[in-house]
Design a protein that fits this description.
By secondary structure, this protein is an alpha/beta fold. β5 and β6 form a beta hairpin. It starts with 6 loop residues before the first strand and ends with a helix.
Length: 206
């Protein structure tokens, strides 16, 4: 028996960041991100001064797993190709795209040589990869992060969250009722045969 309960975005206990840093887990969220990105370029075009335009043209993606990497590449393609002839005052290719990762390398679930190759590819597209960076706050004006002992503030009107996932409420309830062993994010980490027996017993009672 396989029970697929799905997952939800994890903000690592900082759910208040969700408002200013949307995630990419559903079609609705993808549509929202698309609108947010296009609006940023439009606002940059209408900005009264250079500093404001730069803030609108600065995009921060938190989390350099597969989702974050693909999002950064797609955003770079939009800036460099899709919108390059659509504005008079701004040059979309001058957008600053930062991919922020808390760990020492990107794509930690993949072999290191593939991660290095992927980093080179997005870097050639103009994406700036920041590793060993811990985001400590997200608001409507940008992000605050720690890099070693240094705390920095980056002004950015568009922050996108690809920082991680956790199990949803149904998954947590099911794991608790069946006494399944789970890891720190709530996914299965125990003995398949034992957990299958408990799962079967639970559904038979249900």
């Amino acid at each position: 028996m396989i029970v697929s309960t799905g997952s939800q975005t994890s903000y690592y206990g900082n759910d208040s960041w969700r408002k200013n840093a949307p995630s990419l887990k559903t079609v609705e969220e993808a549509t929202n991100i698309r609108q947010k990105i296009l609006l940023a370029f439009e606002c940059a075009e209408r900005s009264a001064d250079e500093a404001e335009a730069r803030a609108w043209l600065t995009f921060v993606i938190v989390g350099a797993g597969a989702t974050g990497l693909e999002l950064a590449g797609a955003l770079a393609e939009i800036a460099n190709e899709t919108l390059k002839h659509d504005f008079r005052r701004i040059n979309p290719s001058e957008a600053q795209i930062l991919l922020v990762e808390g760990g020492p390398r990107i794509l930690t679930a993949f072999p290191e040589d593939l991660a290095e190759k992927a980093e080179r590819l997005v870097s050639r597209l103009g994406v700036k990869v920041l590793k060993g960076v811990k985001v400590t706050n997200v608001d409507a004006e940008g992000v605050t992060f720690e890099r070693g002992a240094i705390t920095e503030r980056l002004t950015a009107k568009t922050v996108l969250w690809a920082g991680g996932v956790t199990t949803n409420e149904f998954g947590r309830t099911l794991a608790k009722r069946t006494e399944a062993q789970t890891d720190r994010i709530g996914t299965h980490s125990g003995n398949a045969a034992t957990d299958h027996s408990k799962l079967t017993e639970y559904f038979c009672r249900w």
